[in-house]
Amino acid sequence: MCALLDENHEKASGYKDCIRWLKSSHIYYAISRSPTIYELHIRDFWRTTVMNVSAQPSKICAKVNGHDIAFTEADLARILRLEDDVGDEVKMTAEEVYGALRTAGYEGPMPGEKKMEFVKSYLIKEWRYIAHVFIMCLDHRKGGTDGLNLDWARAMVLF
Predict the structure, then answer these.
(1) pLDDT tens for residues 116-125?
(2) What's the DSSP call for residue 84?
(3) Span 34-54, pLDDT tens digits
């Protein structure tokens, strides 16, 4: 699935700044491409996926349509054109993410330890749109969720 990032769309009113920001971000390629993906391949992948942590760097290995595949985090970043620099990893604590979201207008409760999700509906509409794009385009969950887990909230704040 890809994001509709057309500033001239009739429903884009009020989101034009968000759309421009997303188009200029380094996640644009990853959220705007819509390759052909076969449901059978997705099922094969998730049914057979294992993480090989003995390899350096760690690899994700699976069998899809009878073919062995393996890739690293760097491979995925290169394919999605995320343009991250090696060693450019930034870590934020849950409190730092919460503070950044509060600054951006988040009015909901801090997630608890049992359910570490920020509720999307507590974000102001522009950030809610960006959170929606993250969930629908980059997360494996494709619907029925209003929660943004800590990792996705961290990524959204850092972009």
Answers:
(1) 778 888 888 8
(2) P
(3) 788 888 998 999 899 999 999
Q: Please answer whether residues 44 and 68 qualify as being in contact, where contact means their C-beta atoms are separated by less than 8 angstroms.
A: no
Provide long-range contacts, Cβ within 8 A and 24+ apart, for 4-10. 5/31, 5/32
| φ, ψ dihedrals at 62, nearest 5° | -155, 170
Which among 131, 137, 136 is positioned nearest to 157, based on CA atoms? Answer: 131
- The identity of residue 9, as a single letter, is H
Q: Which two tokens stand for residue 120?
A: 């999307």
Q: At a CB cut-off of 8 Å and minimum separation 6, what does 94 contact?
A: 110, 111, 116, 150
* Backbone Cα Rg of the chain: 17
What are the structure tokens assigned to 2, written together? 């890809």
Extents of the domains making up the chain: 39-79, 90-158
Angle 16-24/125-138 helices, nearest 10 degrees? 40
pTM of structure: 0.59
pLDDT of residue 61: 95
